[in-house]
Backbone:
């Protein structure tokens, strides 16, 4: 017994010594550069990873047009693999609005009209580039899911939605009053650069309860409950400064909202397939940057239980310009330089990148991760499957 144990220790020591004595890994062996996403190398690389997959996450740097182009490309490539649903970072009402607009004869024109009526009510997607993606989804008879919280200046849009769809006269009249207040609050907030004047801060428990007492339709009740939940989430961030609660509560909401969609379609399809376009932090496996297990981690485990897998991209600009999508920012488009924020291994590679897209297979690096890379790079390797860096990223074309 002692001999076997000694042998085990020897083998373990020799294996560990071998791993730690390896030369630094040459990342060029696990990466490639392309000028266009229609490149055959990228197509082949992507198709291999889509085999037996159930979920694809595109973790984006918000505000760059290449994130939408990349997602659109993935959506097209994924069609033969059974992917027809795109899940985005909005609430259900915004996703329904986007679906109706993308289904119209003039998607861009109608999207601009909605933006003019309710400016910045739908963040991240108030641009022409993402509507290229949305119209493509609809043309391919796909579906949009919105699983996030309601945006802080979206109250007036959701009030308007209920007003235009409800048969409940009492609820309609009450919401007309609140919509007027919400519109006035938004205009004052923008004119005076005071986000605290937006209606979310005026919406209180008494108002919320009065609306719930009037509401009878399950969908309308759910819309109102989502408004109260978003007030709670924003309060953790902007009032009590409880940032963990802010991120964790939002994550839990996204999971519940996703499962509401998922369980509905699961009746006809036991393993629905979904492509997600979310901020990069929401698409990580394991603990993400804000130390929570986000929607992406839940989905990755769901895929495993279904004897499938999930695929997690992170798409970041190296340098370039990004649209802010924020009504309170002084500049709608800002230059950025992400180089200093990348792990040191990536920083060393950047001078060698000469084409538009740099694609690194992180999955293949995992066997070498523990002894060859910095802690920062190890986190990236285990959180995501593929890193995509964009040279000279462009800001999306905002309305």
Residues:
């Amino acid at each position: 017994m002692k001999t076997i144990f000694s042998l085990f220790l020897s083998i373990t020591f020799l294996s560990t010594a071998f791993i730690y004595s390896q030369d630094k890994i040459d990342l060029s062996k696990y990466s490639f550069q392309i000028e266009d996403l229609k490149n055959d190398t990228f197509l082949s690389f992507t198709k291999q990873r889509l085999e037996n997959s159930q979920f694809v996450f595109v973790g984006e740097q918000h505000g760059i047009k290449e994130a939408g182009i990349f997602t659109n490309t993935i959506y097209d490539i994924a069609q033969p693999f059974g992917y027809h649903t795109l899940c985005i970072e909005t609430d259900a009402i915004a996703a329904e609005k986007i679906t109706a607009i993308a289904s119209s004869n003039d998607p861009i024109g109608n999207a601009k009209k909605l933006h003019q009526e309710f400016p910045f009510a739908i963040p991240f997607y108030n641009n022409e580039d993402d509507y290229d993606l949305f119209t493509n989804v609809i043309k391919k008879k796909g579906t949009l899911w919105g699983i996030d919280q309601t945006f802080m200046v979206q109250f007036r849009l959701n009030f308007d939605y209920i007003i235009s769809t409800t048969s409940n006269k009492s609820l309609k009249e009450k919401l007309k009053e609140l919509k007027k207040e919400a519109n006035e609050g938004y205009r004052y907030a923008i004119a005076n650069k005071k986000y605290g004047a937006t209606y979310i801060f005026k919406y209180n428990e008494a108002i919320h309860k009065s609306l719930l007492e009037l509401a009878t339709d399950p969908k309308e009740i759910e819309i109102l409950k989502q408004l109260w939940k978003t007030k709670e989430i924003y309060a953790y961030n902007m009032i009590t400064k409880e940032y963990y609660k802010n991120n964790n509560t939002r994550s839990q909401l996204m999971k519940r909202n996703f499962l509401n969609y998922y369980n509905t379609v699961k009746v006809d399809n036991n393993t629905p397939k979904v492509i997600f376009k979310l901020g990069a932090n929401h698409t990580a496996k394991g603990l993400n940057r804000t130390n929570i297990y986000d929607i992406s981690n839940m989905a990755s485990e769901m895929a495993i239980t279904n004897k499938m897998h999930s695929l997690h991209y992170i798409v970041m600009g190296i340098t370039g310009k990004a649209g802010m999508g924020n009504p309170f920012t002084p500049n709608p488009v800002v230059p950025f330089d992400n180089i200093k924020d990348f792990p040191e291994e990536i920083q060393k590679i950047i001078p060698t990148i000469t084409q538009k897209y740099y694609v690194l297979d992180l999955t293949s690096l995992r066997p070498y991760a523990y002894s060859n890379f910095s802690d920062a790079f190890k986190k990236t390797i285990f959180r995501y499957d593929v890193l995509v860096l964009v040279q000279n990223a462009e800001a999306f074309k905002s309305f």
